[in-house]
Specification:
By secondary structure, the chain is mainly alpha-helical. It is built from 24 helices and no strands.
């Protein structure tokens, strides 16, 4: 599309959607903005479906069903949503703000699995997929000297390691070291959860020694809050849920005596929701995510909004509501794209592909894979890439390409093992075994399932998953009971049981 829109021309649906997703270049974005500001009713109706994630409750539902409501009962709401879109894209310099909402980019903070888990609070404003909690919120604009000090600390951490940074005296000690460690911790989330935890824990230790007289009490308490929240997130990824909850409780204590920044609160809510979701409390997790989503919407944070919607989708799928999950993921993809947030975009497409495959819509899932392939990291990000290969394997298996599926399953296992997720690698093998059985290669499937069960039982598993795997191993030895535990259902149970001591096998076999 030309950067100049003539009076008798209109932007296409793609341009309108890309404006909302932050994917247009600045000249084209300004042209589309000016066209909409001129009051073109046809284009305001055309852009309405892309504005759904910026509305809440009944208004979002009505606009989803009736885009023409943008010119009727939802006219004012859609006008506010457009202002939010313009501000998020950097097209409105501190324009009119919604009541209770900071204008422009004031209150700038962190767009927080892993995806999806978002960026850390200390990541550059507008950067991809911000971290909840530990790296969850950045405080205000940075002075050039402070930016330089943080860059030097990050460089030292990368080149010489944790010990060199921790032992360094000023000006690379204190709060600057905390910031560098939090950023590093968040960046390690897809590659090395143990180092992620180490960096977050050391950030907390240093934050506990900061001088409130020099930095200000609120600043110190906010850093302690962020360090505790990032520690909680790392503990959760490592499967240490009780320790994660303890760290998160301490983070909330620090929050209440700090600046009480709402974006920091939203980051804490995200981690709390993930802990609840891991324990199968999907209803409460969804309610907590709604609180975070409302904050991010008020602060015009589309990347963080998309990340929360991905989490919403995961828990909706686990609760047996795949269509609600698909809707949430499609809404997330209305907020972000490869230019604005490649990691969140990739996570949304991967989760959408998995749910589509599990509901028999593997051709649609394959389209999601094709659209995401250019975003795959060239190196690292083992956890995320492992799950992308897993989706690739499931799609190939559904399409009847067993050789392609085998290669993708093997690639997925390799990535997850490099990430340190032996449990996930075992589930990949069981899923591969289920695919072989489904294709009629029963003996090969059973042999692979037996090997995977042996591999998983070598881990320190909770009682219920261990009992389920023992039953599987027994059923595979005695053919008369070989169908007692369908592999596909067992894999779903083992997914749910990871971090959830209340999960019970019999509920997945009913």
């Amino acid at each position: 599309m030309s950067a100049v829109i003539l009076s008798d021309l209109h932007p296409g649906t793609t341009e309108l959607t890309d404006l909302v997703r932050g994917e247009l270049g600045r000249p084209d974005a300004r042209a589309v903005r000016d066209h909409l500001r001129a009051g073109c009713q046809a284009c305001r109706v055309a852009i309405a479906p892309a504005l759904v994630p910026w509305l809440d409750g009944a208004a979002a539902g009505l606009l989803r069903r009736e885009p023409a409501a943008a010119l009727g009962p939802l006219r004012a709401a859609c006008e506010r949503a457009l202002l939010d879109v313009f501000a998020a894209a950097g097209l409105a310099a501190r324009g009119p703000a919604r009541e209770g909402r900071p204008a422009g980019r004031a209150g700038r903070g962190r767009e927080a699995r892993e995806a999806p888990e978002g960026d850390g609070s200390d990541a550059p404003a507008g950067s991809d997929d911000g971290a909840a909690g530990g790296s969850g919120v950045a405080g205000g604009r940075r002075r050039p000297r402070e930016v330089a000090a943080r860059a030097a600390a990050a460089a030292m951490l990368g080149e010489r390691g944790l010990r060199a940074l921790v032992l360094r005296r000023r000006p690379l000690a204190g709060d600057v070291a905390v910031e560098a460690l939090l950023r590093s911790s968040w960046e390690l989330r897809f590659d090395d959860p143990r180092r992620m935890f180490d960096h977050a824990e050391h950030a907390g230790v240093i934050a506990g020694t900061l001088d409130a007289g020099r930095l200000g009490a609120e600043r110190v308490h906010d850093l302690q809050c962020r360090a505790a929240a990032e520690t909680a997130n790392a503990q959760r990824i490592l499967g240490r849920h009780e320790a994660a909850q303890d760290a998160l409780s301490f983070a909330m204590e620090r929050f209440h005596i700090g600046s009480r920044d709402r974006l920091l609160a939203a980051g804490i809510f995200e981690i709390q929701a993930r802990l609840l979701g891991d324990q199968d409390d999907h209803g409460t997790a969804a309610a907590v995510l709604d609180e975070a989503l409302a904050i991010y919407r008020r602060h015009r944070q589309p990347v963080a909004m998309a990340r929360v919607l991905v989490s919403h989708a995961i828990y909706a799928a686990e609760a047996g509501e795949p269509e609600r999950a698909i809707t949430a993921l499609r809404d997330a993809l209305l907020l972000v794209g490869p230019r604005r947030a490649p990691t969140v975009t990739l996570a949304a497409r991967q989760n959408l592909g998995m749910i589509l495959t599990d509901t028999g819509r593997w051709r649609e899932a394959r389209a999601q894979l094709w659209q995401s392939r250019q975003l795959w990291p060239a190196e690292g990000r083992f956890s995320l890439v492992g799950r992308l290969h897993w989706l690739q394997a499931k799609v190939a298996g559904a399409a009847g390409d067993l050789d392609g599926a085998a290669r993708a399953f093997a690639a997925s296992r390799d990535c997850l093992l490099r990430f340190g997720d032996g449990y996930g690698a075992g589930l990949v093998s069981l899923d591969h075994a289920a695919a072989l059985e489904g294709a009629g290669q029963v003996e090969s499937g059973r042999a692979l399932a037996a090997a995977a069960a042996d591999e998983l039982l070598e881990l320190d598993l909770p009682r219920e998953p261990a009992v389920a795997l023992q039953l599987l191993r027994t059923s595979l030895r005695f053919r008369a009971t070989a169908d007692a535990i369908p592999l596909a259902r067992l894999v779903r149970f083992l997914h749910a049981a990871q971090g959830n001591p209340r999960a019970r096998l019999h509920t997945y076999l009913a």
